[in-house]
Amino acid sequence: MTAALESKGLRPSNDPDLLVDLIVRTKEKQSASATTYDMGGYYGRRYWYGGSVRTTQVHVDNYTEGTLIIDLVDARKKELIWEGRGTAEVTSSTVSEERVTDAVNRILSEFPPTKKK
Predict the structure, then answer these.
(1) Is residue 25 situated within a structural domain?
(2) pTM as predicted
(3) Which domain holds residue 73?
(4) Which of 51, 65, 79, 84 is a plausible cystine mate for 107, CB 3.0–4.6 Å?
(5) 3-state DSSP of the chain
């Protein structure tokens, strides 16, 4: 985090103008998808021939969604100046210092905000 902030021209200080608040949240989530298969039966010129079978398969996936929030706060006014966030699916095997560093760099790539025309 320090390197990413220093790349933006910010430096550690004992009397800072800016405070950095790092928040990590996780939430258990589910996603579901359904696929319907229609088998059998066909039309003749005027009639329906044969029977048909319709089946639906539902797949439910449980996962953990992790959100990393970086708040930059005016130290004197205690007002939020900027907030950035990133969200991804997380598991014990995907959380590493390298991935957190990548997430911080991606989030801070949006700082400082550019003026909209």
Answers:
(1) yes
(2) 0.74
(3) 2-30+63-108
(4) 84
(5) CHHHHHCCCCCCCCCCCEEEEEEEEEEEEEEEEEEEEEEEEEECCCCEEEEEEEEEEEEEEEEEEEEEEEEEEECCCCEEEEEEEEEEEECCCCCCHHHHHHHHHHHHCCCCCCCCC
